[in-house]
């Protein structure tokens, strides 16, 4: 009896120990899964951070650069107006040349940062790069073409920083019709030319 009781006690004790070990294994397995999930989240967050940070830095630099260029644009305008006034007045050529050199130097410096001037005069009006401040009708010019530039526009790395303020040609309806018909020979004229050619041929015969 004692031997059987001892075996039973040993068996029960072994089963308890095994059960306890299984519980520990399950707990460790759950902890391992939780840690692995946390590690995956941290890795994903870090990867997103690596992708996001350079773009944020680039956007910040671009914003600051645009702000600096905007602050310099009035200086370019002042130089341009000074040049225009000096050329119309009795000014010394050296002064004009000096101001022109400063203007060109500043413009070249800004070009190094990606700034470019928008060409407007003689071009078709484009609302994405032009701002119409006045309409004028000149029959000898195409409709919707820029006649004059009131204020020069600029782009930064292909994006418009400031549109050009321009005067646009806007023809009346009858002028547009005349423009579309310009260069086409009239029916009477064409027929007259053919008749003249026939008469000339008969006289030669």
Secondary-structure blueprint:
Layout lengths: L1 H87 L4 H19 L3 E3 L12 E7 L9 E6 L2 E3 L2 E4 L1 E6 L3 H9 L5 H18 L1
Parallel strand pairs: 2-6
Antiparallel strand pairs: 1-4, 3-6, 4-5
Keywords:
disordered C terminus; 3-stranded antiparallel sheet; 14% strand; 205 residues; 3-stranded mixed sheet; alpha+beta
Q: Overview of this structure, please?
A:
- The structure is a single chain.
- With 205 residues, this protein is α+β, with helices and mostly antiparallel strands.
- The chain has 4 helices and 6 strands; from the N terminus they run ααββββββαα.
- A hairpin with a 2-residue loop joins strand 4 (154-156) and strand 5.
- The termini are far apart.
- Mean pLDDT is 78; it is low at 184-205.
Structural class: alpha+beta
Please give the share of residues in helix: 55-70%
Arithmetic mean of pLDDT: 78
For the secondary structure, the number of strands is: 6
First-last Cα distance = 154 Å
Major sheet: arrangement of strands: 1-4-5
Shape: elongated
Radius of gyration using CA atoms only? 42 Å
Strand content: 5-15%
Low-confidence stretches: 184-205
* Count of alpha/pi helices: 4
């Amino acid at each position: 009896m004692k031997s059987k009781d001892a075996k039973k006690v040993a068996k029960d004790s072994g089963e308890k120990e095994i059960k306890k070990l299984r519980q520990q294994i399950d707990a460790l397995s759950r902890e391992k899964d939780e840690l692995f999930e946390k590690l995956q989240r941290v890795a994903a967050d870090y990867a997103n951070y690596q992708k996001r940070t350079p773009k944020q830095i680039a956007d910040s630099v671009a914003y600051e650069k645009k702000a600096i260029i905007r602050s310099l644009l009035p200086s370019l305008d002042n130089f341009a107006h000074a040049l225009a006034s000096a050329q119309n007045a009795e000014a010394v050529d050296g002064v004009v040349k000096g101001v022109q050199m400063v203007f060109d130097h500043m413009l070249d410096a800004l070009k190094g940062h990606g700034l470019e001037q928008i060409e407007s005069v003689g071009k078709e009006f484009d609302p994405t790069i032009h701002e119409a401040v006045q309409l004028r009708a000149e029959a000898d010019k195409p409709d919707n073409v820029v006649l004059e530039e009131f204020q020069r526009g600029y782009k930064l790395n292909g994006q418009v920083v400031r549109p050009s303020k321009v005067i646009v040609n806007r023809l009346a309806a009858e002028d547009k019709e005349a423009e579309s018909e310009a260069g086409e020979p009239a029916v009477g004229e064409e027929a007259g030319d053919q008749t003249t050619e026939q008469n000339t041929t008969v006289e030669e015969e």
